[in-house]
Structure to design on (448 residues):
């Protein structure tokens, strides 16, 4: 049932509009662009809307025709994509049909991460050659060793990062052994590695295994969120057994085939998200401090009979948006990218991505994530690291809601970019869309 529901949610239903209804509700709409009625559902189903007007232009000219029509008629236009996001950047909660929502120079820096406040119809991409990667998974390193304080020695996250440059840790709630993935550039297949010719090599995570599904079903049916530790241990068990059973612990192939693993049938969970900018030498410190605080909070909540997290913590490390990388004269870093380098701290060359996942509707989740967020914003305030919101995930928590805290929205988030950068981005986007066709209630509140 969970798998079927997830697959259904991933496929938007498009109903061809009745011509008479379309003519009455959208008079003068470009005749060459086919209209549809469709529902909107974000990745986890927390933001939904029924019966929205939508269209699929076949090129830039049709996009322009739709946008000009929307401007003249007082409608708004939103880019939909695959709806693989959590935050209200596309539509905000409560959007209804009658709200009239339809589905590069100096300005380029604002458009590269515009949060849906613009609509780019044509781009030229510059990419490097593909590489073959080896991905080795393991679940035998205790979290206290992997996430230990800097200088502890042993099998720390930093030691794997130093060796290969590409890592991910998936730490299931209330467990002690994370699922660690390590990617390394490997031109030739090593002995023992399985050659993968397509992505999604972890079938045990592509769909919800029976062991996990049964426990999740009991959670959402109201049997008790206290089962969260059992859910975490079941997920770890499935990962360990699944890696062995499917011969997936050592994979080799093109980057796409070794990196992609999330499918529409994956268990859908709410996710908050932050990128913490720091130097490569500071990565282990950030990871250690965050995981220690996370562990403390989880234990404190559990001691009070509260279990706000039933999914994993995901930890990844990447580089930043260096405009020198494309080799194009005059290239600029995106103004509002979480990975925008800090001019004041040029030694910062890395980002630690931190996501806490839990089932939607889990009691106390927002309050717990608010405490996590406060820790990140206070601890990583620009002295040796800086926390920025991951736009598509959950952030700006109050005790019972995401994307709602006025101080985080109005002060903390803009401050992580610097007021000058933030103002430049907002001013550019406002100038490019003076009639505010590409916006919604949430963006009007955020981008000011």
């Amino acid at each position: 049932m969970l798998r079927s529901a997830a697959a259904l949610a991933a496929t938007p239903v498009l109903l061809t509009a009745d011509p008479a209804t379309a003519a009455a509700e959208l008079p003068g709409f470009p005749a060459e662009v086919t209209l549809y009625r469709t529902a909107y559902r974000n990745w986890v189903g927390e933001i939904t809307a029924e019966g929205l007007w939508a269209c699929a232009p076949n090129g830039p000219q049709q996009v322009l025709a739709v946008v000009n029509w929307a401007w003249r008629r007082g409608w708004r236009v939103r880019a939909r994509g695959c709806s693989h996001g959590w935050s209200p950047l596309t539509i905000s909660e409560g959007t209804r049909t009658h709200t009239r929502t339809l589905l590069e120079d100096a300005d380029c820096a604002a458009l590269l991460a515009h949060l849906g406040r613009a609509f780019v119809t044509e781009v030229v991409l510059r990419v490097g050659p593909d590489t073959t990667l080896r991905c080795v998974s393991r679940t035998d390193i205790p979290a206290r060793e992997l996430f230990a304080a800097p200088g502890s020695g042993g099998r720390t996250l930093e030691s794997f990062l130093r060796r290969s440059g590409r890592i991910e840790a998936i730490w299931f709630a209330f467990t002690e052994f994370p699922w660690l993935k390590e990617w390394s550039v490997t031109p030739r297949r090593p002995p023992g590695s399985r050659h993968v010719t397509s992505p999604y090599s972890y079938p045990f995570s592509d769909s919800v295994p029976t062991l996990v599904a049964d426990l999740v079903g009991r959670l959402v049916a109201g049997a008790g969120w206290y089962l969260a530790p059992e859910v975490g241990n079941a997920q770890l068990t499935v990962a360990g057994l699944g890696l062995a059973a499917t011969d997936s612990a050592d994979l080799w192939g093109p980057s796409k085939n070794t990196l992609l693993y999330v499918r529409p049938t994956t268990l859908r969970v709410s996710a908050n998200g932050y990128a913490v900018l720091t130097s490569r030498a500071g990565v282990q410190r950030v990871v250690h401090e965050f995981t220690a605080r996370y562990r403390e909070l989880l234990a404190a909540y559990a001691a009070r009979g509260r279990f706000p997290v039933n999914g994993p913590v995901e930890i990844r490390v990447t580089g930043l948006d260096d405009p020198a990388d494309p080799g194009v004269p005059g290239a600029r870093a995106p103004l509002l990218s979480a990975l925008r380098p800090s001019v004041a701290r040029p030694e910062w060359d890395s980002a630690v991505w931190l996501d806490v996942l839990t089932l939607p509707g889990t009691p106390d989740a927002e309050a717990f994530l608010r405490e996590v967020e406060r820790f990140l914003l206070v601890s990583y305030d620009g002295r040796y690291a800086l926390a920025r919101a991951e736009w598509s995930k959950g952030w700006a928590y109050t005790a019972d809601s995401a994307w709602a805290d006025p101080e985080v929205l109005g002060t903390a988030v803009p401050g992580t970019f610097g007021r000058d950068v933030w103002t430049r981005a907002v001013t550019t986007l406002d100038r490019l869309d003076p009639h505010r066709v590409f916006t919604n209630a949430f963006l009007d509140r955020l981008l000011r």
